[in-house]
Design a protein that fits this description.
Strand order of the largest sheet: 1-7-6-5-4-3-2
Shape: globular
Strand content: 35-45%
Length: 137
């Protein structure tokens, strides 16, 4: 098993960050650009990966009371992950994303995963800022 984790501080209340991250209709705005989530009968979703041109059955669960998203493959058991939002005071939040790969064939490697996590957190922060700025103005 291989695990990866990244965190990022965002200048917004944790509720705002979690609401943006957990919005199933807008996951494509912050997930890696090569992944596309198509909701089914939640928590069931289908994830399309451009790199392999494959669709994978997965589960996506939002736990608003814990400000946590959890996901993973259904049949193959290839990977799981979670996103956790925590308030750190002064209207800011820390977002942590964690991925676990149980099957080496699903693991794109440390450099690719690290870059994808960093980019995804940057994209999520942009979306959060847009939402907060639009609500304020």
């Amino acid at each position: 098993m291989t695990e990866y984790e990244r965190s990022r501080t965002m200048p917004a209340l944790p509720e705002h960050v979690f609401d943006q991250a957990a919005n199933v209709g807008q996951l494509d705005t912050w997930l890696p650009e090569e992944l596309h989530v198509h909701p089914g009968d939640l928590p069931a979703v289908t994830v399309h990966e451009d790199r392999t041109d494959e669709d994978t059955s997965a589960l996506l669960r939002a736990r608003p009371d814990q400000m946590r998203l959890e996901w993973g493959t259904r049949e193959q058991g290839g990977y799981t992950g979670w996103l956790q939002v925590a308030g750190i005071g002064s209207g800011a939040s820390e977002v942590t994303v964690h991925l676990s790969f149980f099957d080496d064939s699903h693991d794109p490697g440390e450099q690719a995963v690290g870059q994808a996590l960093d980019t995804s957190l940057e994209r999520l922060e942009r979306q959060v800022r847009l939402r907060v700025d639009n609500a304020a103005g």
